[in-house]
Write a structure and sequence with these properties.
single chain; alpha/beta; TIM Barrel; Methyltransferase, Methionine Synthase (B12-binding Domains), Chain A, domain 1; 3 domains; 8-stranded parallel beta barrel; 5-stranded parallel beta sheet; 53% helix
């Protein structure tokens, strides 16, 4: 029987929630809880991680306040063992810890807490090597965690495995591997499973359709606990419908009770904005996402090869882009192609992305085409010993953070604007950033973080850069950052996306 975990008590991407945490507005948080319970949540995930507050103190306050108004089970969500234990001490009942993972330090820190307090434990299928691409490798990590849990006396039924959802716009085959892993965990290990469903659709239009479809597929493959927004009627309705179809809702009573009174009116449509989010026709989709609008913005040049390169960038056609660039090199200067065709075309794509006309997959495809074109140009310029670099930039995802999709997108975009990128990867020590900036004599360092728990690493990195006396600026970005916090930790610039990163680079390098 699928059980809904409400995801809304979490500051990530929620400005008002962050403000409530900073202001100590517990009533707002309680309101979020009540709305989710009314929407159909069976459990509530509770995450109060924010760099500007005492997370341990706030977690204890919120847990006590929530248990004062509801008996709905709570999932304590933090990466800090001391925060988890503080919440476990005051929790009345059997909680869920979110989470442990396959890293040795996590197993040693979190498994004993689950044993001591008799908690259910969410376990992520990642380890020191990051998130495996293949389902079989994720199941191996799940098996390792299970074995370690059993060794110290944690019951098998208390273990819940998170096979991890990766955004399909960046890794399309990731959804298949996640679903496969869920089924394997159920069949081979006999464990309960949990997934953060909405992660699947980041960067895509009509996210509700992707989320709902993926949710249905995951339930069919054995998902027990979807972490989701219960206030989305399509999502909650999918769970309730699955209970009916799998005979978990006798006589469909829960389903009828939930939808009775408004399913036959327009209330359901308004609540979910079904009409405004309905899938557009293929013709509209092609125009809005693939680039005919962009082509109109750029205008026809009168040169068939210029138009061919523009068209290739707007539509994500690598072969056409490569061939058009090669033809243009026979009659145009390399820098003219970069400055007068590639960069303006990318500007149009970036503007359309900001306006919601182009979406993340199209942005990446366009950037890939421009990279192919730029590689052709660089190959041609080796012969005359020229360079089209606009400057060097060091990029890194800070220590403790294993998420680098955003950084990689920024890297591709910056490279296509002619910048040479020294990519240090993810989980990078602050000292390595300083060493790289000094060695390459860069004027700009870009730091990325997706998790609130790694923001102190970002602050430490910036501090070391300043102490080293390096003549460089620092730009920061990531879902958990704000312009105000960027300024607070000493960054020179904040970039909300790849396009703004390019704008910062242009300012720093004067191009």
């Amino acid at each position: 029987r699928p059980t809904i975990i409400g995801e809304r008590i979490n500051p990530t991407g929620k400005k008002r929630f962050k403000e409530a945490l900073v202001e100590g507005d517990i009533d707002y948080i309680l309101g979020q809880a009540v709305e989710q319970i009314d929407g159909g949540a069976d459990l509530l995930d509770v995450n109060v991680g924010h760099p500007e507050i005492d997370e341990k103190e706030m977690m204890v306050k919120v847990i006590k306040a929530l248990q004062g108004i509801t008996d709905t089970p709570l999932q304590i969500d933090s990466t800090k063992p001391d925060v988890l234990e503080a919440a476990l001490r005051v929790y009345a009942g059997k909680p869920i810890i979110n989470s442990a993972n396959g890293e040795e330090k996590s197993l040693k820190a979190v498994l004993p807490l689950a044993k001591k307090y008799g908690a259910n434990l969410v376990c992520l299928t990642l380890d020191e090597g990051g998130i495996p691409k293949k389902a079989e490798q994720r199941v191996e990590i799940a098996k390792k965690i299970l074995d370690r849990a059993l060794e110290i006396g944690i019951p098998k039924e208390d273990i819940i495995i998170d096979c991890l959802v990766l955004t399909v716009s960046a890794e399309q085959d990731g959804a298949v591997e996640t679903l496969k892993a869920v089924r394997m965990v159920k069949e081979q290990l006999g464990l309960k499973t949990v997934l953060g469903v909405s992660n699947i659709s980041f960067g895509l239009p009509n996210r509700e359709m992707i989320n709902t479809t993926f949710l249905a597929m995951a339930i069919e493959n054995g998902l027990d606990l979807p972490i989701m927004n219960p206030n989305n009627v399509s999502m909650t309705g999918t769970v309730l419908a699955s209970r009916v179809l799998k005979c978990h809702d006798e006589n469909s009573m829960e389903f009828i009770e939930f939808f009775n009174g408004f399913v036959k009116t327009d209330k359901l449509v308004k609540k979910n904005e079904v009409l405004s989010n309905a899938p557009v026709t293929d013709k509209k989709m092609r125009k809005g996402a693939s680039g005919s609008d962009a082509s109109d913005s750029a205008g026809g040049s009168g040169d068939v090869d210029v138009d061919a390169l523009n068209n290739a960038i707007f539509k994500g056609l690598k072969g056409e882009g490569k061939n058009a660039t090669a033809r243009l090199l026979e009659k145009m200067d390399s820098l003219d192609i970069v400055n007068n065709i590639l960069i303006p075309a990318l500007d149009v794509v970036g503007e359309n992305f900001e306006k919601g006309k182009t979406f993340l997959p199209q942005l990446i495809l366009s950037a890939d085409v421009a990279k192919v074109a730029f590689d052709v140009i660089k190959d041609g310029m080796v012969k005359d010993d020229s360079s089209v670099s606009n400057g060097k930039i060091v990029l890194a995802t800070v220590k403790g953070d294993i998420h680098d999709i955003g950084k990689n997108i920024v890297k591709v975009i910056l490279e296509n604007y002619g910048y040479e990128i020294i990519d240090l990867g993810k989980d990078v020590e602050p000292s390595l950033v300083v060493d790289a900036a000094r060695e390459h004599d860069v004027r700009l360092v870009g730091l990325s973080a997706l998790m609130t728990t790694t923001l102190p690493s970002m602050e430490k990195t910036i501090k070391l850069i300043r102490e080293a006396g390096l003549n460089c600026k620092v730009v920061v970005g990531g879902a958990v950052l704000t312009p105000e916090y960027a300024e607070k930790i000493g960054a020179d610039y904040y970039a909300k996306d790849a396009k703004e990163s390019v704008d910062v680079a242009k300012i720093v390098y004067g191009n």
